[in-house]
Specification:
By secondary structure, the protein is an all-beta fold. The chain is 0% helix and 55% strand. The protein has no helices and eleven strands. The strands form two sheets. Strands 2, 4, 5, 6, 9, 10 and 11 form a seven-stranded mixed beta sheet that branches.
Length: 116
């Protein structure tokens, strides 16, 4: 079972930026699919941004143009650069990975709070 450890969350004012990191315990080349999801209190967990092994990226409509997902294969780390943050971006952000064999892994989550 792979371990995914998120970091970089925190409190930021609206309009500010944060960069989330997700460090994997093994080579991220082994994952067909990685992404970021978020869950606000009382709501379901939703996709924020994903990237495939082929480099195809997808974003939720609510974050397009503001968030960027990227990978550093040498560091086995997934990133989420978040700019122009809004109060509605407040949530726990989770890193996700799917292996080539179809096994899903989740990180423990990191809190992002955007104040108005």
């Amino acid at each position: 079972q792979v371990q995914l450890v998120e970091s970089g969350g925190g409190l930021v004012q609206a309009g500010g930026s944060l960069r989330l990191s997700c460090a994997a315990s093994r080579s991220i080349f082994s994952f067909d699919f990685m992404g970021w999801y978020r869950q606000a209190p009382g709501k379901q967990r939703d996709m924020v941004a994903t990237t495939s092994v082929y480099g195809v990226r997808s974003y939720a409509d609510s974050v397009k143009g503001r968030f960027t997902i990227s990978k550093d294969n040498a560091q086995d780390t997934l990133y989420l650069q978040m700019n122009s943050l809004k109060p509605e971006d407040t949530a726990v952000y989770y890193c996700y990975a799917r292996s080539a064999s179809g096994i899903d892994s989740w990180g423990q989550g990191t809190q992002v709070t955007v104040s108005s």
